[in-house]
């Protein structure tokens, strides 16, 4: 149960959101950390080979 590579999926979603919304403004009262800090907390990401090995066979 669950996603095969949740960290990699979250990293991709955060990167896509940053690309669509632009960089965070930051500052003293910032409500979110910079993207680099968020991605660093997700490391290590699951290797793509391991994710592919767990994927179900196409139907």
Mean pLDDT: 79
Number of helices: 3
The geometry reads as elongated
Estimate percent helicity: 40-55%
Beta strands, count: 0
Q: How is this structure best described in words?
A:
It is a single chain. With 59 residues, the chain is an all-alpha fold. The protein has one domain (6-54). It is built from 3 helices and no strands. α1 (6-21) packs antiparallel against α2 (35-42). The radius of gyration is 15 Å and the shape is elongated. The model has no long low-confidence stretch (mean pLDDT 79).
Summed up:
With 59 residues, the protein is an all-alpha fold. It has helices at 6-21, 35-42, 48-54. Helix 1 (6-21) runs antiparallel to helix 2 (35-42).
Give a topology summary.
Elements: H1 6-21, H2 35-42, H3 48-54
Characteristic terms for this protein:
53% helix, 59 residues, mainly alpha, 3 helices
């Amino acid at each position: 149960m669950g996603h095969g590579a949740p960290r990699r999926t979250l990293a991709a979603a955060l990167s896509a959101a940053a690309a669509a919304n632009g960089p965070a403004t930051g500052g003293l009262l910032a409500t979110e950390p910079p993207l680099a800090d968020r991605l660093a907390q997700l490391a290590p990401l699951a290797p793509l080979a391991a994710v592919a090995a767990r994927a179900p066979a196409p139907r």
